[in-house]
Amino acid sequence: MNIEALENWNPWWASKEVPQVLKGMKRNIDPLIFRSVKEKEIIILTGVRRCGKTTIMYQMMDSLLKGVPPAQILYLNLDDEVLKKESLEYIYSAYRQYKNPDKKAFVFLDEIQNIPGWE
Q1: In tens digits, what is the pLDDT along the chain, a chain of 119 residues?
Q2: Quick check: 107 and 74 in contact, CB under 8 A?
Q3: For the chain, how many structural domains are there in total?
Q4: Phi, psi (deg, nearest 5) at residue 10
Q5: Residue partners of 21: CB distance under 8 A and separation at least 6
Q6: Are 115 and 88 in contact (CB under 8 A)?
Q7: CA-to-CA dists, residue 102 to 17, 72, 95, 113, 114, angstroms
Q8: What is the pTM of this model?
Q9: Which of 68, 75, 112, 118 has the most beta carbons within 10 angstroms of its beta carbon?
């Protein structure tokens, strides 16, 4: 896998911020979801297509960037043909090796249903 695919999906690694175009419009969301992202838990966002799940993830990442180094935030859009070819284990290992070898990682998986056996 080419590390460039990870860099393309994680522009904050270079810019230190989530691009405004990705954050979308501010939604009326329970602030608990933003606080819970720092817990050692898995958070699952579900909903119908095009209801704003990805936008909420970008807003959560933006909120994290106010106190977390950019390299600790990994976003994967698993609709990406390059990423679909690799196992999640391999992608995560590459991220750890290349970008964040030893600090806590906040991992956001978008379109996870595209990975067979993701459950």
Answers
A1: 678 999 999 999 999 999 999 988 877 777 777 777 777 777 777 888 878 889 989 998 998 999 999 999 999 999 999 998 888 999 999 999 999 999 999 999 999 888 887 77
A2: yes
A3: 1
A4: -130, 65
A5: none
A6: yes
A7: 22, 9, 11, 28, 28
A8: 0.88
A9: 75
Dihedral of alpha carbons 15, 57, 54, 111, sign: positive
Contacts with 41 (C-beta within 8 Å, 6 or more apart), sequence order: none
Residue whose pair of structure tokens reads 């993701």 in the numeric block: 118
32 lies in a domain?
A: yes
**33 vs 64: CA distance, rounded Å:** 12
Q: Which domain holds residue 17?
A: 3-114
* In-domain check, residue 65: yes
- Report if residue 119 sits inside a domain: no
Tell how far CA 108 is from the center of its chain. Answer: 3
